[in-house]
UniProtKB/TrEMBL annotation, chain A:
One of its GO terms (molecular function) is ATP binding. The keyword Transport applies. The keyword Mitochondrion does not apply. This is Iron complex transport system ATP-binding protein. Belongs to the ABC transporter superfamily. It comes from Microvirga subterranea. SUPFAM superfamilies: P-loop containing nucleoside triphosphate hydrolases (SSF52540). Pfam families: ABC_tran (PF00005).
From TrEMBL, chain B:
It is found in: Cell membrane. GO terms for cellular component: plasma membrane. Its main location: membrane. It holds the Pfam family FecCD. Keywords: Cell membrane, Membrane, Transmembrane, Transmembrane helix, Transport. Belongs to the binding-protein-dependent transport system permease family. FecCD subfamily. CDD domains: TM_ABC_iron-siderophores_like. This is Iron complex transport system permease protein. Gene3D superfamilies: ABC transporter involved in vitamin B12 uptake, BtuC.
Length: 251, 354
């Protein structure tokens, strides 16, 4: 059964203050990648935490075709203060809610995910000794090792260099196809969005302003209205387009 | 087939298994240190016995006199074993406090739980006020226990409030320490000379108050608490990755914290209620364990308990050895021994501990 996720008028409230409202999407299916974009403090992280069940709020989140532990969320903040090693941290992510004993298949899964993300060389280093980018990769490994059916990634590549960004987003896209995983991710780089996302959801000022196929949503109008820059979209290959920024929007 | 071969060739699994084996050996080493320390503890006192005599007496051999067997089994054994279970309980409680509050300074002593227990005990010692009036025999212990549990739950409830940070919790603990110390000073000011001496001795912490029933109660609580923690080992370890991360793994963080704090409050309060204030074991024991064995709770928890037990047992040996013929209250020695030991560990350990 294919995993599905649909948001219907979803919002978030902190006490009496409403920080997000009116997020409605079509059904997001396993095998699809949806990118959530928008300026800083637009409400993207609140939306992820709301879908993950860490925040309360109005609206309906319809999740279908997944087991009880099928939804996994990778928070934006990856800072840690622990002597746990990378390997231990990925293994403990795998062991949550499962058998107490560590079995061979648990260790095999950990080895595989570390190899997929090419971080085997830091497997036995302490988490607090890692750079920001390495921590981000480990956090992603902790999420992927749980083999989720719905994957929520809040800025998973913000601390990575360009090569790693391309590599990691390609891996996420291929895993979503291979495992029929429904992926929702926040990314700031619109070129990366155009490369990996099937659908784009735009959040601005605590509300959803656009939702649709990536190339239909990312337009010069969006650059001007949401990001206050002038720019254009150019097709750079048969497969994807590219955002060219000219400068701050003329008033 | 090729995939299976490539998986088997990966070094991660093998290295992990080797590290787990090393951790098990370290636990065994801690256990051996503890056993040797208990034997030394049993041999020390007004009459000194050799390690051989102690072992023979423990085995019930006829080679040692009946007097030696009586001294070791009936007089010294409850005290020596009380050092073990009190050390293990305080250290395990400190370890879990540090885990759920995400704070390296958390311990029964630094968060005011021991101070609350002292105040509760002083009420009984000075005014004869019992918080549970029907339990006259254990009035001092029960007062201490209830006050300590109250303080632990207060800390927990405050830590759940929005906007309360790790630093705030430590500050809150310090305010509790000062508040209960001030109240204790007030009670001491109002106390008669005889009652004052009793309060001062109680607050120093002494294992000589150990009896078989007290030992049995503390052991029973430890025997219930440790498996409860162990069952939650993976979830408790996940807390070290941060609250959001643990929650994203499906851990019910709020419930886990509440359950753990309830167990911790009993585990920390009972030893203090029976033997008085013994500081630093609950703080230092977990740090020694963390530096030796890491933070995987399946190993960290037993290592903390063993480190605390060994530390208090060794302290008991030292408290009997410093001034021949007299036993210095153990609460005085724990800090004097524990702090330099922790300091040397921190200075020689290249791995960041917190």
């Amino acid at each position: 059964m294919v995993a599905t996720l649909q948001l219907n008028d979803v919002g978030v409230r902190y006490g009496r203050q409403e920080v997000l409202s009116g997020v409605t999407t079509p059904v997001m299916k396993g095998g699809e990648v949806t990118a959530v974009i928008g300026p800083n403090a637009a409400g993207k992280s609140s939306l992820f935490r709301r879908i993950a069940g860490l925040l309360a709020g109005p609206g309906e989140i319809a999740i279908g075709g997944v087991s009880s532990c099928g939804v996994c969320y990778m928070p934006q903040d990856t800072s840690v203060n622990t002597v746990l090693t990378v390997y231990e941290s990925v293994l403990l992510a795998r062991k949550q809610g499962g058998h107490h004993r560590v079995r061979d298949d648990d260790l095999e899964s950990v080895d595989e995910v570390l190899a997929d993300l090419r971080i085997e060389s830091i497997a036995f280093r302490g988490l607090c000794e890692l750079s920001g980018g390495q921590r981000q990769l480990v956090s992603l490994a902790q999420t992927l090792v749980r083999e989720p059916q719905i994957l929520l990634l809040d800025e998973p590549t913000s601390a990575l260099d360009l090569h790693r960004q391309v590599e990691v987003l390609s891996l996420i896209r291929s895993l979503s196809r291979k495992r029929q995983m429904c992926v929702v991710l926040a990314v700031h780089d619109l070129n990366q969005v155009l490369r990996v996302a099937d659908r784009v959801l735009v959040i601005d000022g605590g509300t959803m302003v656009r939702c649709g196929p990536a190339e239909a949503v990312i337009t010069p109008d969006l650059l001007r209205d949401i990001y206050k820059v002038d720019g254009r979209i150019e097709r750079c290959s048969r497969l994807c387009a590219q955002v060219i920024i000219d400068g701050p929007a003329a008033h | 087939m090729a995939h299976a071969a490539s998986v088997a060739a990966r070094p991660g699994r093998g290295t992990y298994r080797a590290l787990v084996h090393r951790k098990k050996l370290l636990l065994l080493a801690l256990g051996i240190v503890l056993v040797l320390s208990v034997i030394a503890d049993l041999g020390l006192g007004p009459a000194r016995y050799s390690m051989r005599e102690v072992v023979l007496a423990l085995a019930g051999s006829e080679e040692v006199s009946n007097q030696v067997r009586v001294v070791i089994w009936d007089i010294r054994m409850p005290v020596a074993l009380m050092a073990v279970v009190v050390g293990a309980a305080l250290s395990a409680a400190g370890a879990q406090m540090q885990t759920i509050l995400n704070n390296p300074l958390a311990s029964p002593f630094t968060l005011g739980i021991s101070a609350a227990a002292s105040f509760g005990a002083s009420l009984a010692l000075v005014f004869g006020v019992g918080l549970l009036p029907f339990a006259i025999e254990y009035v001092v212990s029960i007062n201490a226990l209830l006050m300590a549990m109250g303080a632990a739950l207060f800390i927990h409830l405050m830590s759940q409030r929005r906007g309360v940070t790790v630093e705030t919790i430590v500050l809150l603990g310090i305010t509790l320490v000062f508040t209960f110390n001030a109240l204790l000073a007030l009670v001491q000011f109002l106390a008669s000379e005889q009652a004052l001496a009793a309060v001062v001795f109680w607050t120093m912490g002494s294992l000589t108050r150990a009896t078989w029933p007290k030992l049995a109660i503390t052991t029973a609580i430890l025997a219930v608490a440790l498996p409860l923690f162990f069952r939650r080992a993976w979830a408790l370890t996940a807390l070290r990755l941060g609250e959001d991360k643990a929650a994203s793994f499906g851990v019910n963080v709020r419930r886990l914290r509440l359950e753990t704090m309830l167990i911790v409050s009993v585990l920390a309060a009972v030893p203090v209620a029976f033997v008085g204030t013994i500081g630093f074991v609950g703080l230092v024991g977990p740090h020694i364990a963390r530096m030796m064995i890491g933070e995987d709770q399946r190993f960290f928890l037993p290592a903390s308990a063993l480190a605390g037990a060994a530390m208090l047992s060794l302290t008991s040996v030292i408290s009997k050895s410093l001034i021949p013929g007299s036993i210095i209250p153990i609460g005085i020695i724990t800090a004097l021994v524990g702090v330099p030991f922790l300091f040397s560990l921190i200075m020689t350990n290249r791995r960041r501990a917190w």
